[in-house]
Design the sequence.
C-alpha cells in the first residue's frame, strides 16, 4: 500500500510490476497529448497511470476518458470541489451514512469492495450531493494508496430508503453522475449490487433507466428484500454482519475508512 506522498517513480515501478502492459511510451504519449489540450488542468502523473489502466492500456480511449472526466468535474463542482474529510459537511455524512471500503488488500491486483448503508434513515439528515462527494473522496483515497487493481465492486444496501430520499435527490445531478460513472471513471467498475430492493428502488431504476447504457445495466444486480443471493457473488466472510455476512459491522468498516481519509487530509486539500 502506498502513502499519498509516495514518489511517482516508486509508484510507477511498482505498478509496472503489477501490470507490465503499462508501457512507458504509452504513458509519455498520453501525457503529451494532455498537455497540448489547453482546456485541461494539470493532471497528476499517478492519475494518468490510473486512467491508462482503466482504459485497458488503450491510449486513445484513456485520452477520451480523461477529457470526459474533467468535463463532468467542471459541470459538478458541488461534488468534485472542497475536498476536506474534516469539514462539517463530511462529518454529517459520516454520522448518517456508512460509505466504506470493505476489502482493500495492502498489495496485489484483487478487486476492491465498497459498501454503503444508512446509519440514519431520516430523510431530513440525507444529502445526496454530500454523500457523492464523500464517496468520490473515498475513491481518490483508494487509488492513491492502492494504485491500479482489477476493479471496484460496489454494494449498496437500500434498506430504509423511502420516497422522501428520492425527492431530495437532484435528478439533474444524478443524471450527470450516471454519465460520469459510465464514461469517465479512472478505475474499472466491475459490478454494482443493490440489496433489499423494494417498490421505491424499482421506481427509481425505471426513472433513471433512460440514462443508463447497456454496459452499466449489465453490471447492475438487484436483490429483493431479505434475499441472501448476494453471497453467490460476494464473499460471505468479508461482507458486513448486518446483511448476513461474517465480516465486521458496517459501522466498524465506516469508522476505519473515515479515519484513513482523515489521515490523508493534506492530500485531499491539495486536490482543491
Sequence:
Amino acid at each position: 500500500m502506498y502513502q499519498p506522498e509516495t514518489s511517482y517513480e516508486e509508484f510507477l515501478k511498482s505498478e509496472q510490476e503489477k501490470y507490465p502492459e503499462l508501457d512507458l511510451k504509452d504513458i509519455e504519449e498520453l501525457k503529451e497529448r494532455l498537455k497540448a489540450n489547453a482546456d485541461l488542468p494539470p493532471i497528476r502523473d499517478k492519475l494518468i497511470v490510473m486512467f491508462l489502466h482503466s482504459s485497458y492500456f488503450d491510449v486513445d480511449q484513456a485520452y477520451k476518458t480523461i477529457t470526459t472526466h474533467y468535463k463532468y468535474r467542471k459541470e459538478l463542482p458541488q461534488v468534485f470541489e472542497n475536498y476536506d474529510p474534516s469539514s462539517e459537511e463530511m462529518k454529517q455524512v459520516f454520522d448518517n451514512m456508512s460509505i466504506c471500503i470493505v476489502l482493500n488488500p495492502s498489495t496485489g491486483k484483487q478487486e476492491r469492495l465498497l459498501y454503503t448503508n444508512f446509519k440514519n434513515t431520516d430523510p431530513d439528515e440525507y444529502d445526496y450531493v454530500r454523500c457523492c462527494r464523500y464517496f468520490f473522496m473515498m475513491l481518490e483515497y483508494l487509488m492513491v494508496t492502492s494504485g491500479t487493481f482489477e476493479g471496484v465492486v460496489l454494494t449498496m444496501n437500500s434498506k430504509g430508503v423511502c420516497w422522501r430520499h428520492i425527492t431530495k435527490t437532484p435528478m439533474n445531478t444524478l443524471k450527470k453522475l450516471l454519465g460520469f460513472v459510465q464514461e469517465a471513471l479512472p478505475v474499472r467498475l466491475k459490478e454494482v449490487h443493490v440489496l433489499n430492493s423494494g417498490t421505491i428502488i424499482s421506481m427509481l431504476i425505471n426513472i433513471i433507466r433512460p440514462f443508463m447504457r447497456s454496459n452499466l445495466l449489465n453490471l447492475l444486480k438487484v436483490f429483493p428484500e431479505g434475499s441472501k443471493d448476494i453471497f453467490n457473488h460476494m464473499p460471505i466472510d468479508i461482507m458486513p454482519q448486518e446483511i448476513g455476512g461474517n465480516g465486521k459491522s458496517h459501522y466498524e468498516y465506516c469508522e476505519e475508512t473515515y479515519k484513513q481519509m482523515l489521515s490523508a487530509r493534506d492530500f485531499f486539500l491539495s486536490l482543491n
